[in-house]
């Protein structure tokens, strides 16, 4: 009987392989991916890791493999234009599993809508982030007598105190995607969810005439005056480490940064603090990490995809993932009582009607995102570029077809 049980177990584990194209490389990201892989392997699956240097490289590699007839089993990505392009016959849908397991009821509507293309579920969430967070060193704030800022004016007053004390006030990694997130954080702080949706979702021409936009560009440039000379080209996680080690006071970054503080053994509210871009119009610009599953013909890989889908949608796995990644669980039924105070702020924001909006990563087509990122970098690096030129450039981008 014991031998029969062993054979049965080995048979059930056979034929459940996944080849995962992914780009999580920082300390916290690696822990997060290992959390998923370990849970998958504990269920009897075989995990093949196919890492890429960054998001763009992962998408390029996956696209090339699909075109070459050797698709990965799963691709880590966001529910943006790249996913929607692949969804035209190149991605497996999970409508049957979703209906069987009641997944739609467990996922916030704004997230569910992003996962579906033409009413088919083509992406599964592995966590929710927001990109309009600011992280700070508790020790530097305390030494300078700074309370957590509640307004943009208070935030810049804090930056002045940090600078006067000889610290880098804002740690910024001089990469285009890091720079544009500061600009969008200024826009959402000034305008709130309603204006954000008019500008980036509806792309209403009237929204482009608002005096909020010139002010956002002015504040964007102001942030650049508080950075350090080594900023250009620095990775986001190296930049987060400046706050972790007390070399800088604050950082604009999505809450994947929380994972880096946790990986360094720090505790929210003790060594580090967090706040959403300060405003009287609370907003939470979500970024959803997902797995998309390219169509595979091999039965082994198909079974592996099913097992991975069930693994990432397991509430217990989501809770473990959030604890190391810095994300908020995708499922609304996950127990979040043990998450730290920063994660709790995210959970509260996600659950508050009217606060959550789509980040520009999801809201805008890929080409417009790229052009806006280029514009932000040009404005950031060229002090001679006027605010008027920045606003006009953004208007031209958002009004293009």
Description of the structure:
- InterPro entries: Bact_solute-bd_prot1, SBP.
- The protein is α/β, with parallel strands linked by helices.
- It folds into 2 domains: 2-127 and 289-338, Periplasmic binding protein-like II (D-Maltodextrin-Binding Protein, domain 2), CATH 3.40.190.10; 133-282 and 364-399, Periplasmic binding protein-like II (D-Maltodextrin-Binding Protein, domain 2).
- The protein has helices spanning 2-13, 27-42, 55-67, 81-86, 95-101, 103-106, 109-115, 138-143, 152-164, 176-201, 212-224, 236-244, 257-263, 299-312, 315-325, 341-351, 360-363, 366-381, 387-399; strands at 17-22, 46-51, 74-77, 116-117, 120-121, 123-130, 133-137, 168-170, 248-252, 272-276, 284-292, 356-358.
- Strands 1, 2, 3, 6, 11 and 12 form a 6-stranded mixed beta sheet that branches. Strands 8-9-7-10 form a 4-stranded mixed beta sheet, with helices on both faces.
- Helix 2 (27-42) packs antiparallel against helix 15 (315-325).
- The longest helix is centred in the middle third of the chain and has 26 residues, at 176-201.
- It is globular.
- 47% of the residues are buried.
Q: How far apart are the first and last residues' alpha carbons, in Å?
A: 67 Å
**Could you say what the CATH topology of the largest domain is called?**
D-Maltodextrin-Binding Protein, domain 2
What best-fitting shape do the alpha-carbon axes yield? globular
Low-confidence segments, given as residue ranges, are 1-13
Q: For the CA atoms, what is the radius of gyration?
A: 22 Å
How many DSSP E strands?
Answer: 12
What number of structural domains do the residues give?
Answer: 2
Major beta sheet, specifics?
6 strands, mixed
Q: Helical residue percent? A: 40-55%
CATH homologous superfamily classification of the largest domain = Periplasmic binding protein-like II
Subcellular location: Periplasm
Protein name: Probable sugar-binding periplasmic protein
Function: Part of a binding-protein-dependent transport system for a sugar.
Keywords: Periplasm, Signal, Sugar transport, Transport
């Amino acid at each position: 009987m014991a031998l029969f049980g062993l054979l049965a177990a080995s048979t059930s584990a056979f034929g459940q392989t996944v080849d995962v194209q992914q780009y999580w490389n920082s300390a916290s990201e690696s822990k997060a991916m290992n959390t998923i892989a370990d849970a998958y392997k504990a269920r009897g699956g075989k995990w093949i890791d196919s890492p890429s240097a960054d998001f763009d490289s992962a998408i390029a590699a996956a696209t090339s493999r699909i075109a070459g007839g050797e698709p990965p089993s799963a691709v880590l990505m966001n529910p943006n234009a790249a996913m929607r392009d692949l969804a035209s016959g190149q991605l497996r849908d999970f409508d049957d599993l979703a209906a069987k397991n009641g997944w739609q009821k467990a996922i916030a509507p704004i997230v569910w809508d992003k996962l579906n293309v033409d009413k088919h579920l083509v992406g599964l969430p592995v966590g929710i982030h927001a990109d309009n967070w600011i992280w700070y060193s508790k020790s530097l704030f305390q030494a300078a007598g700074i309370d957590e800022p509640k307004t943009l004016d208070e935030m810049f007053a804090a930056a002045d105190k940090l600078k006067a004390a000889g610290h880098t006030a804002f740690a910024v990694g001089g990469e285009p995607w890091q720079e544009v997130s500061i600009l969008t954080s200024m826009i959402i702080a000034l305008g709130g969810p309603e204006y954000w949706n008019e500008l980036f979702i509806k792309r209403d021409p009237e929204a482009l005439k608002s005096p909020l936009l010139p002010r956002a560009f002015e504040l964007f440039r102001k942030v650049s005056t508080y950075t350090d000379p080594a900023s250009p080209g620095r990775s986001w996680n190296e930049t987060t480490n400046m706050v972790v080690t007390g070399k800088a006071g604050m950082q604009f970054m999505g809450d994947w940064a929380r994972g880096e503080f946790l990986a360094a053994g720090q505790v929210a509210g003790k060594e580090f603090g967090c706040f959403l871009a300060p405003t009287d119009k609370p907003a939470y610009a979500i970024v959803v990490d997902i797995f998309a599953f390219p169509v595979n013909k091999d039965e082994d890989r198909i079974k592996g995809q099913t097992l991975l889908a069930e693994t990432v949608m397991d509430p217990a796995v989501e809770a473990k993932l959030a604890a190391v990644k810095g994300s908020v669980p995708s499922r609304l039924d996950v127990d979040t009582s043990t998450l730290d105070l920063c994660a709790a702020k995210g959970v509260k924001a996600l659950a508050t009607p009217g606060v959550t909006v789509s980040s520009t990563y999801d809201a805008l087509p890929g080409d417009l995102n790229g052009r806006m990122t280029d514009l932000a970098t040009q404005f950031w690096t060229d002090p001679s570029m006027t605010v008027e030129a920045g606003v006009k450039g953004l208007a031209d981008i958002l009004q293009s077809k």
